[in-house]
Design a protein that fits this description.
Helix content: 10-25%
Order of helices and strands: HHEEHHHEEEEEEH
Oligomer: single chain
Structural class: alpha+beta
CATH topology: Beta-Lactamase
Strand content: 25-35%
CATH architecture: 2-Layer Sandwich
Distance between the termini: 6 Å
Number of strands: 8
Length: 193
Amino acid sequence: MPQAEPVRKFLEAWLDARGDKTMPSPQEFGPFQMRPYLTHVAVYRRMPEGRYKVTLQGTGLVEAFGFDATGMYLDDIYPKENHPELNHLYEMLFGNGYLSHSIRTYERKGSGAIVTIEQVMVPLSNEDGQHDRYVLLAYNVPMPQRPRTGEVKKTVSLGILEERTIYDAQTLLPIACDLTTPRSADEMALPLI
């Protein structure tokens, strides 16, 4: 369940844009529909050679993370030892058109404050109807300290992954979770939104 109001509204806008399809096209869910969220959005594309590229990173994310990754390949950003984890996650997401929802903590550049962010990744198709891109939305969320329910590890993405759940894009039901296993059957029966 989304914790931050903008994350929930972003997901609702994505659902409206896709209608009864699995995912919308960039024309149906593009800059105009994402306008309220653009500073907090990054777009990842799978390129023809199979690598993943950041094609857009909003200014709010640039400020929070301390650099602009627009135009960079993900495997050039992260150390080689992180590539297997990175490739596994993105192959699973891109291969199936899944959604991803995560909670992370990280140290904000400049201030050194520990911040909790909520991220959601939603799939988009290209003009030919083929799935080749994801839109990631990340928002700081005021959250109380929570006990960790699983192993905590540094990840290839940002900061420390506290919780990640992968959802089926059509049903919005969880299909897998990371760092919070085992999850109760009741939790795994709840849709993302």
